Prior knowledge:
Shape: globular
Number of strands: 8
CATH class of the largest domain: Mainly Alpha
Order of helices and strands: HHHHHEEEEEEEEHHHHHH
Number of helices: 11
CATH architecture of the largest domain: Up-down Bundle
Distance between the termini: 37 Å
Number of domains: 3
CATH superfamily of the largest domain: Butyryl-CoA Dehydrogenase, subunit A, domain 3
Largest sheet: 8 strands, mixed
Amino acid sequence: MTHKIPSRRELVGRASELAPLLRKNALWEEENRRLPDEVVDALTESGLLNLRVPTRYGGYECDMRTVVEVIAELGRGDGSTAWVMSVFAISTWMAGLFPDEVQDEVFAQPGVRVSGILSPTATAVPVDGGVLLNGKWGFNSGVLHSSWDTNAAVLMSPDGPQPVMAAVPTADLEIVDDWHTAGLRGSGSVSTVARDVFVPEARVLPMGPVLQGVHRSRANADSPVFNAPFMPTACATISAPALGLAKAAKDAFLERLPGRKITYTAYENQSEAPLTHLQVAKAVTGIDEAEFHALRAADLIDAHALDGTPWTLEERARVRLDLGATCVRAKEAVDVLNGASGGSSVFTDVPIQRIERDVQTLNLHAILHPDTNFELYGRIVCGLEPNTLYL
């Protein structure tokens, strides 16, 4: 069966068309701590859930730059939606690394949503035919709307513990409603618990080889998309919501600007104040820098995918640096525009305050944290060994 794969421009356009719907639902998401069905249905109908689905299942198998640009555009509408979409994209891509018979199972349903967790906070004990999974995963973004979860665990093998990824039907997991946060409230990043969940051997993927670019799919063996290394792929993907939020802050600020004055000054129009001109220019510069880093990482992944050249350690670390730089420059831009938005912006129906909390939350994430990423890159450039396996 053949199907037409939309162009990057068309897919970004679809994301842009969703922005009004995402903005309309943002306050509901804040109050209910999850994405509404209306938004999830719209994402499904748009075809954007197919970004990383293999083409043989009707997916688009898009390159990295397309993924980043689409998710960033969703972020202009709502940060929580963009974050969940980034998790869907990574987890769907991860499903494409499992044996083909597992993929047949996961992608049997068109428009399937796959979520996942990289932190191995559960254990997998070998039993006949597979493993028994026990443990709890926090920050399980998207799981409320997913059919499958690709969650990391520690396999207690006779040769010693090793990290694995298990593909688990979401119905086999217990949902813990504990997502009470300051930012990204609409992402519904609740915890999940496994209690003696049996996972067949085929659905247990050793992470050591995956981190080195080796996986178990025969059908995807020659695909440039699925031959990209795991951590650069994940890092480039999750940089996109931060970039989108920075652009959203600019949109929100300029939308409220006409007719606003600067209270307790002679400026009847904020737009006429030199201070405002400086603030806008500074914010736009930060947004442009954030976009540079997000797209540099994406383009590096796509370039290696096409020419098949091996990655250097410095390049892998540079993607981590690009992730950190995207986040910190996005946050700096949002901070400037939020600070220029006045006292009335603290009301919950004014988007800039939510954007500020969302981008702050992203910057606190363990993988996105700018200082952690900068230190790792500097360490390697200075000739030291990396202090992490996540490269």
